[in-house]
């Protein structure tokens, strides 16, 4: 009887459990089906492998780059000490794509980096790639984990060392035994702790897991000269610059000189209006000034003998916009009207002006070498202007477009030409004798200076950074060499002392004035 009751109870339980399940679901079969999902090998092509040293993100990640009908993956493999990587296979496992990665370990090529691989998936039966999950399978390595990322380390440096910069530092990760170290280097940055805000180079090493500063080195690379904006420079002798100040609610300009040998600063002239330009005569006996009230302009001459400025007057008033010294006693002036430009010469010894020519063009700039005149004709809303050369103001040769032209010597000129399609300024060298382009420097040039008839220096605006690179160029062999990274392009070069004079606005919230510094290029290399 007991056996019969036991049998009935067991039978009832089985019926109850079976009744609780859906007639459409078979859990066992579903699990069995999941285990038996077929893995598919995906055809692929590796387009590019880069050991990235940017370190902006060091976490493993896969990003889909879908272009037209092609499916590409940007695969970041995390922080690894490696000499390279290989992709062994890519497998589709249901809604997941597994990427199998091998690291390479060539002893003399090992470095800490974030390997990034661009992969094109060739299979067209993947379905919606956006619905897929990605899994990076590291077959012979483990990504390195650190607690302090790049941005955390940089913020710590800015705060601890009281620095300010408008450029990006050089950043690297290295390994020392069991430690991972951040190595950060800054060039020509502002030291907030100095009242004169000198420019410094700073190198810092920080433990990537503790955040501790291991060591640091700070070197001053500049000398503060004065507040102001450089207007002219005579190599090995003097800087001419202006300072703008507010006096009793009125903005006033004053002209100053800096003796590069004695380091003496002298106030030369104070204007009630705006000083638009100023220049030394070639023999340093005179300083010419164009002063404007916004409508009319006047020419002033300051003899170095007594430093007393006098205004140049004539029977037919001149409203000069541009000036250029031809020699020690002759100054050329450009007066622009609505339809033409008048060219005058002014003799400082005789205090006489003479109309040289009237041209049906809008002359914006003028360069002089002996009896050769390099003329720049303005083009409204155009970066590139009309450039030509004349000796008699009647016959013009070498007609091209560009801007900021300069004589190298009587046989060569250099000028910039904007390439609009790439938004960059190329540096052209033109041979007057052969009437041919001698060379084209394919850099994004923002400024250049002729040093001699054998060489020049030029400044390139760096594309991915808010700074510049200074280069030298030799005419004979057309050789270009990098000199230093700098953080401005308004420069003047002292070749004897390997210095540059530069005007900068410190990136401080309470500092808006331009400051003139000298930079020792020997410390910037």
Automatic annotation (TrEMBL):
This is Lipoprotein. It comes from Tissierella simiarum. PROSITE patterns: PROKAR_LIPOPROTEIN. The lineage of its organism: Bacteria, Bacillati, Bacillota, Tissierellia, Tissierellales.
């Amino acid at each position: 009887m007991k056996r019969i009751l036991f049998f009935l109870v067991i039978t009832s339980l089985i019926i109850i459990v079976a009744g609780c399940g859906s007639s459409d679901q078979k859990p066992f079969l579903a699990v069995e089906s999941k285990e038996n999902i077929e893995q598919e090998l995906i055809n692929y092509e590796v387009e590019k492998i880069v050991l990235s040293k940017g370190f902006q993100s060091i976490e493993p990640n896969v990003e889909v780059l879908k272009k037209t009908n092609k499916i590409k993956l940007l695969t970041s493999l995390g922080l690894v000490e490696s000499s390279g990587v290989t992709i062994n296979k890519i497998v589709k496992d249901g809604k997941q794509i597994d990427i199998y990665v091998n690291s390479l370990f060539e002893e003399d090529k090992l470095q800490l980096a974030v390997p990034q691989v661009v992969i094109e998936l060739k299979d067209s039966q993947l379905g919606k790639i956006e619905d897929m999950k990605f899994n990076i399978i590291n077959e012979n390595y483990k990504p390195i984990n650190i607690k302090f990322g790049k941005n955390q380390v940089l913020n710590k440096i800015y705060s601890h060392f009281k620095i300010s910069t408008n450029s990006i530092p050089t950043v690297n990760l290295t390994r020392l035994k069991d430690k991972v170290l951040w190595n950060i280097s800054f060039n020509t940055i502002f030291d907030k702790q100095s009242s004169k805000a000198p420019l410094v180079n700073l190198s810092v090493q920080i433990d990537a897991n503790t955040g501790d500063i291991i060591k640091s080195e700070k070197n001053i690379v500049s000398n503060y000269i004065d507040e102001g904006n450089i207007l002219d420079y005579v190599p090995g002798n003097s800087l001419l610059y202006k300072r703008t100040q507010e006096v009793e609610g009125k903005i006033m300009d004053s002209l100053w000189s800096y003796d590069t040998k004695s380091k003496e600063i002298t106030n030369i002239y104070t204007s009630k209006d705006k000083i638009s330009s100023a220049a030394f005569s070639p023999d340093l006996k005179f300083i010419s000034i164009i002063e404007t009230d916004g409508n009319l302009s006047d020419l002033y001459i300051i003899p170095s003998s007594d430093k007393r400025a006098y205004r140049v007057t004539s029977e037919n008033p001149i409203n000069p916009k541009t000036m250029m010294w031809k020699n020690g006693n002759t100054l050329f002036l450009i007066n622009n009207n609505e339809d033409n430009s008048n060219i005058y010469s002014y003799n400082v010894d005789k205090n006489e002006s003479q109309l040289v020519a009237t041209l049906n063009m809008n002359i914006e700039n003028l360069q002089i070498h002996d009896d050769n005149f390099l003329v720049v004709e303005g083009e409204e809303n155009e970066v590139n202007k009309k450039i030509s050369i004349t000796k008699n103001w009647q016959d013009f040769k070498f007609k091209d477009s560009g801007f900021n032209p300069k004589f190298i010597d009587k046989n060569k000129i250099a000028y910039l030409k904007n390439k609009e399609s790439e938004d960059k300024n190329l540096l052209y060298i033109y041979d007057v004798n052969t009437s041919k382009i001698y060379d084209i420097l394919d850099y994004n040039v923002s400024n250049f200076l002729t040093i001699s008839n054998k060489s020049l220096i030029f400044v390139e605006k760096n594309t991915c950074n808010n700074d510049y690179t200074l280069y030298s160029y030799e005419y004979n062999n057309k050789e270009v060499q990098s000199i230093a990274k700098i953080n401005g392009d308004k420069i003047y070069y002292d070749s004897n002392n390997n210095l540059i004079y530069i005007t900068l606005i410190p990136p401080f919230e309470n500092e808006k004035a331009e400051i003139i510094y000298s930079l020792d290029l020997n410390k910037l290399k």
